[in-house]
Amino acid sequence: MVGGSHYGIKKWKRVGLGAVTLLSTVVLAACGNSSSSSASSSDEINWFIPTEISTLDISKVTDTYSSIAIGNSGSNLLRRDEDGELQPDLAEKVEVSDDGLTYTATLRDDLKWSDGSDLTAEDFVYSWQRIVAPATASEYAYLVSDAHVLNAEEVIAGTKSVDELGVKADGNKLIFTLSAPSPQFMSLLSFANFMPQSKDFVEEAGDDYGTTSEKSLYSGPYTVEDWNGTNGTFTLVKNKYYWDAKDVKTKKVNIQTIKKPDTAVQMYKDGDLDYANISNTEATYKANKNRDDVVDVPEATTAYMVYNQTGTVTALNNTKIRQALNLATDREGIVKAAIDTGSTVATALAPTGLETLPDGADLAEYVSPGYSYDEEAAAKLFKEGLAELGTDSVTLTITADSDAPVAKAAVDYIKETWENTLSGLTVEEKFVTFKQRLEDTKNQNFDVALVLWGGDYPEGSTFYGLFTTNSSYNYGKFSNADYDAAYQKAITTDALDPAAAADDYKAAEKALYDNALYNPIYFRSGKGLQNPDLKGLVRSSTGLSVDFTYAYKE
């Protein structure tokens, strides 16, 4: 990225596969109105998502499904093509200084918002300021400080004003100033949370901004219609003001929430959907995996358990208890029992396929600290931990998503193996909706929780940034100095040296492993059924999971 290079002006290639996910329960996608206008309509695409979207607020979105709506109705400076490469979108080009500290984006001429008003470089500045402003309280503010945008940390802390952030407009140019090089910075220029926002529009809408489709303004290939803030259906409608509208072939993408995977599969077979995920249950997977219309749904997603270490769950502040739980976790058994649908055993926090190191090694394999299933060692440590606590029994509740079909089978299996291995342990199960589980984990309203994280960009920091002391995604609220130091070294001293950064992530992973600060379960990947007539759809394993910009039906 350094060396005066720029992301050129080559025309987007139009067909695609690549794939991505953010925070979420299950990775799926979107589809038709409840009055579904049949997948046979050539100028409409019918899609589905497994749970309702929660917001259209660009600064605050953190979940996969809302990001599908935002990522298709908004545009950023760059957009990923079917090969996963960054291509110019609202920017004509992005240039990088030799020292990697200055990025200059030149906007295309005559950019417009969906209401026909002018879209300017100032709209980007406002979006970057809004995500770090303390008043907005965005969970993703850390992305800006971790990318070393000048003064970001101070702005987030409230010691400097947003005007001092290293993002400035100069006519049709945006100039980003970093305090240190950042390997992930170029990726952020395609990320949904940094799409432009109109200050006038946001301020006029006030607290209602992003709560319905009408209280949003759009810069991308589509606009969102018919979302009232709570309903499970909405429509992506072609945006005539998009700079490349002439190449957007699809007039409407109908998206509906379908919570039962079998229902989606049946609707697909009936011609009412253009896609259905088959990796939710083993039965569905096995019944459909050999069909000719199966497609890969690549992901960089890890499912893991977090332990509440705030002190409210006394047992989980005991290292031996946590180590015992990790050793009593039969990951291979869990995958076979619950997620035998293309997913694999997790060996670390960073999943396979996220990042390939300079020597060709996969980051996940490189950092793996050696998680194992050892009943004997687990039982011994648990007994010692109970003695340290002065008790002979402990009850722990595992919280998981009720709308993720694999969660019940996974938790059942974990409960059985934990109770069988660890004498004195009682495991209770709690299933709540994905939206509720997000709230519960955010507020430390849990003992043990099964969560998923999908990478935002193809570099290790998108996972290892989760567990720093001050991260809002460190749901267990533990603090480990070795972990923090390793992560900081990766994103500062070693930021432009992927091999050295991988060593740092390995050290971070070891700190997690040695102290049993979390428990990796599986790397999610899956397959779906997709209409063979659907072309040009771009899937990504990080960021925007499904991009309809140039998708069409033959």
What does this molecule look like?
The protein has 17 helices and 23 strands. With 554 residues, it is α+β, with helices and mostly antiparallel strands. The chain folds into 2 domains: 17-257 and 531-553, Dipeptide-binding Protein, domain 1; 299-526, Roll (Dipeptide-binding Protein, domain 3). Strands 13, 14, 15, 16, 17, 18 and 19 form a 7-stranded mixed beta sheet that branches. A hairpin with a 5-residue loop joins strand 4 (78-80) and strand 5 (86-88). Helix 9 packs antiparallel against helix 12 and helix 10 (331-338) runs antiparallel to helix 13. Residues 1-40 have low confidence and may be disordered.
SSE map:
Blueprint: E1 6-7, E2 19-21, E3 44-49, H1 64-73, E4 78-80, E5 86-88, E6 91-96, E7 102-107, H2 121-132, H3 142-146, H4 152-157, E8 167-170, E9 173-177, H5 185-188, H6 199-205, E10 222-225, E11 233-238, E12 252-257, H7 261-269, E13 275-277, H8 282-288, E14 294-307, H9 319-327, H10 331-338, E15 344-345, H11 363-367, H12 375-389, E16 394-401, H13 405-421, E17 425-432, H14 434-442, E18 448-454, H15 461-464, H16 481-491, H17 498-514, E19 518-530, E20 534-535, E21 538-542, E22 546-547, E23 552-553
Parallel strand pairs: 2-21, 3-12, 16-17, 16-18
Antiparallel strand pairs: 1-6, 4-5, 6-7, 7-9, 8-9, 10-11, 11-12, 13-19, 14-18, 14-19, 15-19, 20-23, 21-22
Helix pairs in contact: 9-12, 10-13, 16-17
- Helix residue percentage: 25-40%
User: Structural class of the secondary elements?
Assistant: alpha+beta
CATH-derived architecture of the largest domain: Alpha-Beta Complex
**Beta content:** 15-25%
Overall number of domains: 2
- Per DSSP E runs of 2 or more residues, the count of β-strands stands at 23
Could you report the average pLDDT, rounded to the nearest whole number? Answer: 91
Please identify which CATH superfamily of the largest domain we are dealing with.
Dipeptide-binding Protein, Domain 1
Low-confidence stretches: 1-40
CATH topology of the largest domain: Dipeptide-binding Protein, domain 1
Distance between the termini: 37 Å
Number of helices: 17
CATH class of the largest domain: Alpha Beta
Rg over alpha carbons: 23 Å
Instruction: State the shape.
Output: globular
For the biggest sheet, the summary is: 7 strands, mixed
